[in-house]
Description:
Blueprint: H1 13-25, H2 27-30, E1 44-49, H3 55-66, E2 70-75, H4 87-95, E3 101-106, H5 111-116, E4 122-128, H6 134-148, E5 155-159, H7 166-177, E6 181-185, E7 205-208, E8 220-223, H8 240-244, H9 248-251, E9 259-261, H10 274-277, H11 285-304
Amino acid sequence: MARHLLQLEGVDAEGLTALLDRARSHLPAARGEATPARSMDGRLVAQLFFEDSTRTRLSFEAATARLGGRSMALQGAGSSASKGETFLDTALNVDALGVDAMVVRTSISGGAALLARNVRCAVINAGDGRREHPTQGLLDCLTIREVFGRFDGLRVAIVGDIANSRVARSALHALTTLGAHVTLVGPPTLLPASMAGVAHHRDRVALSHDLDATLGGLDVIMMLRVQLERAAGGGVASDYRELFGLTHARAARLPGHCIVMHPGPVNRGVEVDDDVADDVRRSQILRQVTHGVAVRMAVLEHCLGR
């Protein structure tokens, strides 16, 4: 029976730690410093991306190649979806090609779970609507653990368009399960009160509409892009950067050990100033990308039973 990765909600600390440990073992290969065992030799992975992607799609392809597997890429604009074929029918046809796994990104919340119920192969969720992005949540956790070596007691702020962010949801589930305390920060239009109840460990979640008030005690600040493609623009005021952007002045108020993260793509000068994004002392943004390859190697092995 195929093993899927559809969400981080419900994954316990032991399961998360096992994936992070396996991902850490792949970091030398992800950095191009070592050659891993070809644990996916002969395996075929279909990349089904019905939404735009750079980091996630390419890192899944890199992870597959590092492990000796092969990728088939299908993007919505060049598929029969443009001729009226349904999302499920497209996946069923790809499954009929004999692939071992499919990596799926879709605007349909719950779309990856729909496929998992109907196809033979393993399904890995690469982002489904506003719901979850589990491998991004894992790579964010790996990045934090590589810096601090732990999660217990860490103070993490996730800032920006929380309402539309599948990244925020996956990170929230994983971080609170592993022991971190998370403050969700954003304007009322992009931070519904219901978000406090998303995580199983609600006592580790706080909400704030005041970024300046949260800066002093942070270990990690994770900035999010405003998702205009999900109609978030109507909830953003013209002073968004002044109130919720990580400007040079705000970064100077962070504790010296606090790291800056962003899942990308970064809108420079909106959610993060240039010098903050490029600060090699604080910024983990490019390390997150490298860690994404290691995490996706671990997830592919996990789902394919190697």
